[in-house]
Amino acid sequence: MPRRILLLNTDLEIGGTPTVVRELAWRLRDWAGAHVEVAGLGPPGPLQQQLWSRNVKCTALSARGPRDFPRTLWRLLRLVKQERIDTVLSFLVHANTVAAALRPLYPRARYLQSIQTTQPNPRWHWRLQRLAAVAAERVIVPSPSIAAVARRWAGVPSAKLIVIPNAVDPAELRIAGVPPARQQFRIGFIGRLDPIKRIPDLIAATALLPPSFELHIFGDGPERAGIDSDIARLNLTTRVTLHGTIARPQDALAQIDLLVLPSAAEGFGLVLIEAMATGVPVVATDAPGIRDVVRHGETGLLVPVGAPKELARAIERISNGPPLRERLIANGQTDVERRFSWRGVWDAYRDVLRV
User: Fold this and answer.
1) pLDDT digits over 156-166, tens only?
2) Which end of the chain is more exposed for a tag (fewer CB within 10 A), N or C?
3) Its pTM surpasses 0.90
């Protein structure tokens, strides 16, 4: 009898974890023949439309804050009963907490959780995760860095943790045709405009580079106004473009020559393997999560966190060195195929989900 699986995420917006949820949902249905439901704690979002386009049911529980906890839990309980769910896999601390509260009300299901961040703050998130993890049979993490902080900050036992890397389908990410020749060298950032991403460091690095370098920022978030101010203060309005959110990473990757991720911490950095699979070289910070994905000098270049001068030097190294650029691209594509393709990680998900 096919498994009846619920993937529960904190939100249904565009981002790294929602992308993992979407891709896993499709493969559980298409590759394993499972009955898959997806739910988000918050309001409807783009992920819902993406799932519906492939006939995967997605429910927005529409929680508006902590005061909605009882109502959200009741809606979730009604959903799992109605769909006869036998496995709940939740992602991120808020969804993990709600799933943990669901377990005594619906004990017939297996409960698995996923932690996707190494961000240390707010600390109360990790205290809450410590409580939630007690209810989980297994806790899935995409990188050894997250496994380390889950043990240290949330007290998750090593025996309960399982590392399954996030993954992409390289064939889906290939860009058709030959990229156009450009006079300007286009640096790109793709992601949420959040303080942990340290986008001001990348803007400062751009100011140190010659005028032939442009910066293209794809994404939105709470740091948008501050980023606008930094661009104006450094007289970069003609060299930095804010594009807003995009539906597919390929749409941004086709427009850039180099991807930069200057974060202070990442759980994994899904955008890095998306870029490498596409044939776009990467520069990133030597931060938890990122260093599990990028091998310095082989599949990308790593620089210290909070070092705009080092960022600028790494960007120039790649732009001025075709042999280096070509080696990083070739090695990056090979590494994604070997370590981070869905075909490569599927067996681990199949085992833990028993499909």
Assistant:
1) 999 999 999 99
2) N
3) yes
